[in-house]
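Subject: design request, 400 residues
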């Protein structure tokens, strides 16, 4: 069918990280007229690496970015686990910890976001530095007001605005009811590579606290990561970066290994990313003319290693269903139908991942270290493959 812009259904997408631009790509591909609003002033970079695996590889391949992502592949070759005093327990290939699929494609999150943005920026309208202030679903369209004062009308609105989704809050109510807290908070940040590390990660653990340095290629910077057990989510720290820095520093008084250097770098970092480790579980991902995709709807948490992959697949399916179903209600229902089981099995991975990456108790630390020393199976070993590939991508063609 010939594409005529004026007759195309209009969709507002909130959030330009992974799910947002991927959804924008597929909606545009199917002939929708897409606007993406992002509260940050530009696409946000970010040093840590994410994996694209299993079913999600098919999505990036169909988008034509697989060769570019293969070039950006950070190719981590070694993971070293350290004892409290910084001595090495074991240095292994990532495959030993992650299972034989290892890192199919591992790219810096910012590189993926940037690549998806570049792919779509000429055909999709991006509005940076703004956010949805109010949504009024009128039945046959949605009236949207923006923080910046603008007002516009769209046929559909999709929230791709992450774990603490603004769209979800406006349409489905407070986060608490959907939020499954996994008992940890973390801080990620960039620091100079004064460690001589290359294509490797070094992970230090004591019960309830973990510190890690990830060196992606021979770059001048590395990614620092501090993760810690907290029984209650630190809600008070969310809107206050200084409170976040104080909380992390107070939780890591350790004078061992590179922990003091990491804490000092975290204090100075201009790209600090602080969050809780949690998942989103919702009974339904749409209401009227508004739907959610990616972390906003079904965050699996970094303990699953599948946040970006699930978001990519969700974006592909949601756009495809919107393009092929009679109306948005049927499309949203089909999107849930196709995605629900895939989401469930990938969220389940987080439970096994937790005792390997961030053991809480001395017993968990000892059991993990014992397995590492004797090279017996870790709980994560091989458990992901079925989940990563649990969905066969539907074919939607190019329909409008
Ligand atoms: C800068 C950054 C760093 C991250 N670091 C980590 C990390 O260290 N560990 C980890 O496990 N996960 C991290 N994540 C989350 C990870 O990228 C996601 O789990 C995964 O990629 C799924 O992507 P998503 O697009 O659904 O959500 P996200 O990647 O969270 O993207 C949500 C997007 O929505 C935007 N947004 C939020 N609120 C609004 C609003 N009101 N209006 C408009 N836009 C809004 C955000 O700025 C962001 O661009 C990070 C995300 C970002 C943006």
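Subject: RE: design request

Done. Sequence follows.
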């Amino acid at each position: 069918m010939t594409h005529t812009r004026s007759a195309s259904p209009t969709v507002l997408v909130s959030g330009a990280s992974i799910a947002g631009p991927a959804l924008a790509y597929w909606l545009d591909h199917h002939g929708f007229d897409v606007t993406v609003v992002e509260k940050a002033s530009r696409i946000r970079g970010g040093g840590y690496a994410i994996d694209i695996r299993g079913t999600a590889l098919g999505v990036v391949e169909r988008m034509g970015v697989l060769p570019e992502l293969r070039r950006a592949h950070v190719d981590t070759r070694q993971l070293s686990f350290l004892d409290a005093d910084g001595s090495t327990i074991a240095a292994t290939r990532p495959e030993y910890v992650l299972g034989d699929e290892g890192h199919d494609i591992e790219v810096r999150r910012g590189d993926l976001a940037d690549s998806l943005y570049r792919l779509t920026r000429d055909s999709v309208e991006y509005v940076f530095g703004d956010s949805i202030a109010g949504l009024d679903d009128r039945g046959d369209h949605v009236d949207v007001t923006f923080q910046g004062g603008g007002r516009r009308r769209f046929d559909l609105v999709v929230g791709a605005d992450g774990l603490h989704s603004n769209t979800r809050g406006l349409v489905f109510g407070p986060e608490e009811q959907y939020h499954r807290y996994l008992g940890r908070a973390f801080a990620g940040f960039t620091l100079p590579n004064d460690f001589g590390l290359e294509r490797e990660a070094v992970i230090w653990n004591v019960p309830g606290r973990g510190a890690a340095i990830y060196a992606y290629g021979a770059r001048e910077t590395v990614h620092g990561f501090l993760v810690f057990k907290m029984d209650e989510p630190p809600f008070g720290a969310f809107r206050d970066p200084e409170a976040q820095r104080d909380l992390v520093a107070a939780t890591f008084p350790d004078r061992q290994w590179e922990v003091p250097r990491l804490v000092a770098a975290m204090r100075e970092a201009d790209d600090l990313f602080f969050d809780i480790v949690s998942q989103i579980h919702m009974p339904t991902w749409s209401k009227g003319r508004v739907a959610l995709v990616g972390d906003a709807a079904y965050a699996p948490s970094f303990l699953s290693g599948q946040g970006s992959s699930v978001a990519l697949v969700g974006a592909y399916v949601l756009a495809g269903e919107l393009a092929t179903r009679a109306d948005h209600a049927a499309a949203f229902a089909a999107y849930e139908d196709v995605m629900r089981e895939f989401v469930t099995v990938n969220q389940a991975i987080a439970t096994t991942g937790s005792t390997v990456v961030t053991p809480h108790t001395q017993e968990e630390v000892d059991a993990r270290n014992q397995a590492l020393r004797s090279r017996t199976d870790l709980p994560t070993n091989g458990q992901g493959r079925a989940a990563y590939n649990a969905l066969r991508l539907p074919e939607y063609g190019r329909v409008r």
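The chain has 13 helices and 18 strands.
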